[in-house]
Design brief:
The chain is an all-alpha fold. It contains five helices and no strands.
């Protein structure tokens, strides 16, 4: 993936510019980048997008009884 494409997409997610610069200029592969992005895009950000935690989804049917 081109550095500028990676940079543009990360900025569109609302990540801080200095973090995007370090991440976009990294030469490591996408699997390792996923580990880094997992730390950047925290649970609060994903909740704002309307996504629910897999852990809370797992506990829902078990708390009914």
């Amino acid at each position: 993936m081109c550095i500028w494409t990676r940079y543009r997409e990360l900025r569109a997610l609302g990540i801080a510019q200095h973090v995007v610069h370090m991440t976009a200029n990294s030469r490591i592969g996408p699997w390792f980048m996923a580990k880094i992005l997992n730390g950047i895009l925290d649970r609060v950000y994903l909740t704002k997008l309307g996504l629910r935690s897999m852990y809370t989804r797992y506990l829902e049917p078990r708390s009914v009884s």
